[in-house]
Amino acid sequence: MGEMKNDGMMWALVKEKPEEGLWMKRVPVPEVGPNDVKIKIHKTAICGTDVHIYQWNDWAQHTIPIGLTAGHEYVGEVAEVGPGVQGFKPGDLVSGEGHITCGKCRNCLEGHKENCKDAKGVGVNRSGAFAEYLVIPSSNVWPCNPNIPEEMYAIFDPFGNATHTALSYDMLGEDVLIAGAGPIGCMAAAIAKFSGARHVVVTDLNPYRLELAEKLGATRTVNLKEETLPEVMKAIGMTEGFDVGLEMSGSQAGLHDMIHNMKHGGNIALLGLQRADAKVDLETVIFNGLNLRGIYGRKVWDTWYKMSTMLQAGLDISPIITHHFDIKDYEKGFEAMISGMSGKVILDWAHVND
Asked: Catalytic one among 42, 44, 52, 199?
């Protein structure tokens, strides 16, 4: 790929055709507006959303414009700042919040940016981070602490999903059920344990990912092909059902199972995306007085502060990063994600022009 050419172009992973795959091609370097920051990307991570875009599933076909640069999990350094930007300078290590909010709706004005009704997603509705450079508003840029390993910042977006979900209810001394041992479910298990939960039970059908959940702090993992939750509760001495449920699988069966194994008055946070026609047993929700809360994105910036300070306080989620590839081998990274035999996959951009 040779030296960086000064032709105003850069390498990016683009959804060039309406079919499976992403394509490495030259695209224009994005321009910097008055309040924008241009970030030179160091490392990116692959999200489940990126896999959907890669595989071109039903959601992607209805959402992703052809020609879009994908990606929204990254760390890099400031390359340039717009004339109106304060607090950032070239060379600063940064990551960023991938939901670009409108700043004008009621929720934005009240400081609840996670509920902005007009949010646009980096790498979904606008150019993403799988590129040499990304431009975002300075209000979306997060300064990185040099004492935290750089690659951890590449996964602050999904770590933030896990943190927002796990910290939506009190965990101290509680029995926690996590449905889905994908990377976000595994990180949520680590946070629940770190936050003082008693039992952290993680369910899935994938033995590799259940093993990963165990490494990250699950006190008990359950392969639902082999055991039922009532059996597990009995085995670990629980008598009344789970206090807190975190639904990370997006599976209708997972949510159904959770609703039927909560204590009366239990709290459920829903992050996994259910199908539009998913059936929910509302009779049990009502009779058992359950609280269900939908979770989207991260709180800005509450969640980001909590992530940084938990890591500084000794939370270790490093085992969730299982694979590293050079960006030129991005297809291997996607293969690892699609196989289900991975945690987070990091793609390194350092040698894209070699």
From this structure: 52
